Amino acid sequence: MGTTDGLQRFDGIRYKTFQHKENDSTSIPSNPVWQLLVDKKNNLWVLLADGRVGIFDTRNFIFREIPARFKKPVSPNTFIKHLITDESGNIFYLMGGSEVITWDEKSKDFSYTHNFFRQKEEWNIADFLQQPGTEKYWISIEHGGLAVYDRSNGTLSFPGQNAEKEPAIEHYGNTGSYYKLFFDRQNRLWSVTLNGLPYVNCFDLKNGKPVIDNGS
Question: In angstroms, what CA-CA distances link 125 with 62, 96, 110, 208?
Fold first, then answer.
C-alpha cells in the first residue's frame, strides 16, 4: 500500500513500513507514494508524489530509482501523473497535460525516445490507454478530443484526419479533455470530463454510439 507516510506491506499478520532514510540510497527517496504497479515480470513499480519513479525489490527491500527523460518541460506537481501498462508488458509514464514516455529495459530508463506510438508534435496528452485485445492506443489530447494510434498498421487517427473512421473520435470532436480512460468488458470506453464538476462519459465502440454523455 502506498501512503502519505511511506510504503506499507501487510503479510497477513503484521505491517512493515518502508520510509525514506537519510544517507541510505536504497530507501525510497521520499515518503508520499502516489501509485503502485506490478508488471508482467512481477516487479513492483513505485511512483512517488514528487514525480520520481523506481522499482522496489520486495525480497531485499531495496529501491532503485529509474531516470525519466521528458521532451517537454514538465512539473511533477500535476495530479494527473501515473504509470500505465499494456497487454505486451510495456510500461508508460504519463505526465498528464504534457506527454507520455516509455520504459526501455535495455537502457533502464523512461524516455520519449523509446516511444513507438505516433502523435502530433504540438499535442499535450491528458491520458493514454491501450484498447484490450487490439494494438490500438487511445490518446486523449488536452483540449483537443481523442486520437487513436493503431500499431498494427502505423495509422494515426484524430479529429480532422480520422483515417480509420473511429466513431468516438467523430463524436467527441476536437474540443474537451478526457481523463481516466477505461475500457470495460463490453468494450465500452469510459472517461471523465471536468467542466467545473466532473462528468462521466461512456461510448459503446461496438455500436458506435454514446451510452452516457456528460453524466446523462
Answer: 32, 6, 16, 24
Whether residue 35 contacts residue 82, with contact meaning beta carbons closer than 8 Å, is answered with yes
Residue that has been written with the C-alpha cell 522496489 in this structure: 56
Give just the sign of the alpha carbon dihedral 157, 160, 164, 165.
positive
**DSSP state string for 49-62:** TTS-EEEEETTTTE
Query: Which residues are 56's β-sheet partners?
Result: 44, 63
Q: To the nearest whole percent, how much of the chain has pLDDT over 70?
A: 100
Distance between CA atoms of residues 26 and 85, nearest Å: 25
Q: Is pLDDT of 216 > 70?
A: no
C-alpha of 6 from chain center = 22
- Separation CA 76–CA 208 (nearest Å): 36
Distance CA 185, CA 182 (A): 10
Whether residue 45 contacts residue 37, with contact meaning beta carbons closer than 8 Å, is answered with yes
Comparison of pLDDT for 79 and 57, the residue scoring more = 57
Using the structure block, give the residue that is written with the C-alpha cell 470506453. Answer: 189
Q: Kindly indicate the confidence band of residue 215, based on its pLDDT and cuts at 50, 70 and 90.
A: confident
Tell me the mean pLDDT in the region 82-87: 97
98 φ/ψ angles, rounded to the nearest 5 degrees: -135, -80
Distance of alpha carbon 135 from alpha carbon 196, whole angstroms: 34
